[in-house]
Design a protein that fits this description.
Elements lengths: L4 E4 L1 H15 L2 E5 L1 H6 L2 H8 L5 E4 L2 H9 L6 E3 L9 H6 L3 E4 L2 H9 L6 E6 L11 H14 L2 E7 L12 H12 L6 E5 L1 H6 L7 E2 L25 E13 L4 E2 L5 E2 L4 E6 L16 E4 L2 E6 L7 E4 L11 E5 L5 H7 L4 H6 L6 E3 L1
Parallel strand pairs: 1-18, 2-3, 2-9, 3-4, 4-5, 5-6, 6-7, 7-8, 8-9
Antiparallel strand pairs: 1-10, 10-13, 10-17, 11-12, 13-16, 14-15, 14-17, 15-16
The protein binds pyridoxal-5'-phosphate (PLP).
EC number: 5.1.1.1
Pathway: Amino-acid biosynthesis; D-alanine biosynthesis; D-alanine from L-alanine: step 1/1
Keywords: Isomerase, Pyridoxal phosphate
C-alpha cells in the first residue's frame, strides 16, 4: 500500500478549540467548512461535539453532512442560503443562517416558516465582499425583529486584515460596526482566528476560529499565542527509492536541481496530486526520521525528491514528514508562496487516519 497518510490528532484539535475559548472569553463556533480545512468535517465535529458551542460551515450541503452524521449542536451557514428554497431545509434541520445581503433579508421576510429562525446579520464594515451596507443595517435588524420570522439575531462582521498586527484597518472596521449597531440590543461576533489571537481588545460574544483549530498560525511572523497552538495534521510518507549521484547531475522534471556535490537522492511517495504544493522550491523543509532535510528539484504528480546526503542513517523506508509538528505547514506554505489554509484544503487522495 502506498505509504502517504495524513494523521489527524484530535486531542490537538480539542486543545486548540479550548485555547480559542480561553483567550477570547467568548462562545466559539468551530469553523469546519471545506471538510474542516481538509481534516475531515464529520470526525472533527464529533471530536468537539461534547464541548463546542456550535459549528460553522459554508453552505447547506456541508451542514446536512454533519446533521446526517448525528451532529446535534448549532450549525451556522456562513454564506446563508443561495436560493430561498433552501429555507425549508434550514428550518427542518434547525440550522442557523447568516444574512449577508438585502435579497436574503427580503427572501426570509417572504418565506412561509413554521417556526422562527436564528440569524446572524452580517455588516460590511469595510472588507467589501459580503455584508449589508451600514446604512441598511439597523433598518434590516428592526424589520426582522418585527416580522416574527426570527427568534434571535446575532450581529456579525468580518475583518479583512486582522492577520496584519500593526495595521489600523481592523480598528477602523470596528468603529464602522459600532456605529452601525448603536442602539441594537443583540449579541455580536467579529473575530476569526487572527482576531482571536492577535486582537485581544476586540469585543465579541461569539468568536469564529478556523485555521487556529487546526494548529496553524494565521500570521507570517512569530506570535506568542499562536506559538501555543498544536498542529493537528501530520502529512507523512516514506522514501521509496534512493540513488547516489556524482556532482553535476540533474534531478527531476526540467532539471531544476543539479547536484553541486556527490548527492544521495531519496524519492518520496508524495506529489502535487496529493495536494503537496508544486510550487514548493528546492530548499523547502521536510523531516526524515525526525531530522530536518530539504526537498530538491521539482515536485511531480506522485513523487518528490529529497537530499539525503547529510543523513547517512536515512534510506529506503525512512519516514518523511512533509508537514506536521516538526515541519510547520505554514513554513511549507510560505516557501510555496501560499498560506496554510490553501495547502490544507488542497489535500486529496491521501487517506486520513485519526487518533
Ligand atoms: C472561514 C471564516 C472564518 C474562519 O476564519 P479563520 O481565519 O480560518 O479563523 C470566520 N468567519 C467567517 C465569516 C469565515 O468565512
Amino acid at each position: 500500500m502506498r505509504p502517504a497518510r495524513a494523521l489527524i490528532d484530535l486531542n490537538a484539535l480539542r486543545h486548540n478549540y479550548r485555547l480559542a475559548r480561553e483567550v477570547s472569553g467568548a462562545k466559539a463556533l468551530a469553523v469546519v467548512k471545506a471538510d474542516a480545512y481538509g481534516h475531515g468535517a464529520v470526525r472533527c465535529a464529533e471530536a468537539l461535539q461534547g464541548e463546542a458551542d456550535g459549528f460553522a460551515v459554508a453552505c447547506i450541503e456541508e451542514a446536512l453532512q454533519l446533521r446526517a452524521a448525528g451532529i446535534r449542536r448549532p450549525i451556522l451557514l456562513l454564506e446563508g442560503f443561495f436560493e430561498a428554497s433552501e429555507l425549508e431545509l434550514i428550518e427542518q434541520h434547525d440550522l442557523w443562517c447568516v444574512l449577508h445581503s438585502l435579497w436574503q433579508v427580503e427572501a426570509l421576510l417572504q418565506a412561509p416558516l413554521r417556526k422562527p429562525l436564528t440569524v446572524w446579520l452580517k455588516l460590511d464594515s469595510g472588507m467589501h465582499r459580503v455584508g449589508l451596507h451600514p446604512e441598511d443595517y439597523a433598518a434590516a435588524y428592526r424589520g426582522l425583529q418585527a416580522s416574527g420570522k426570527v427568534a434571535r439575531i446575532v450581529l456579525m462582521s468580518h475583518f479583512a486584515r486582522a492577520d496584519e498586527l500593526d495595521c489600523p484597518r481592523s480598528e477602523e472596521q470596528l468603529a464602522v460596526f459600532e456605529q452601525a449597531r448603536a442602539g441594537l440590543d443583540a449579541e455580536i461576533s467579529l473575530r476569526n482566528s487572527p482576531a482571536v489571537l492577535g486582537w485581544p481588545n476586540m469585543p465579541s460574544d461569539w468568536v469564529r476560529p478556523g485555521i487556529m483549530l487546526y494548529g496553524a498560525s494565521p500570521f507570517e511572523q512569530a506570535q506568542a499565542l499562536a506559538a501555543q497552538l498544536q498542529p493537528v495534521m501530520t502529512l507523512q510518507s516514506k522514501v521509496i527509492s534512493v540513488r547516489e549521484l556524482p556532482a553535476g547531475e540533474p534531478v527531476g522534471y526540467g532539471a531544476r536541481f543539479i547536484s553541486e556535490r556527490p548527492t544521495r537522492v531519496g524519492v518520496v511517495a508524495m506529489g502535487y496530486a496529493d495536494g503537496y504544493p508544486r510550487h514548493a522550491p528546492t530548499g523547502t523543509p521536510v523531516a526524515i526520521d525526525g531530522q530536518l532535510a530539504r526537498i530538491i528539484g521539482r515536485v511531480s504528480m506522485d513523487m518528490l525528491t529529497v537530499d539525503l546526503s547529510d543523513l547517512p542513517q536515512a534510506g529506503l523506508g525512512s519516514r518523511v514528514e512533509l508537514w506536521g509538528k516538526q515541519v510547520l505547514a505554514s513554513e511549507v506554505a510560505a516557501q510555496a508562496g501560499t498560506i496554510p489554509y490553501q495547502i490544507f484544503c488542497n489535500l486529496r487522495r491521501v487517506p486520513l487516519s485519526y487518533s
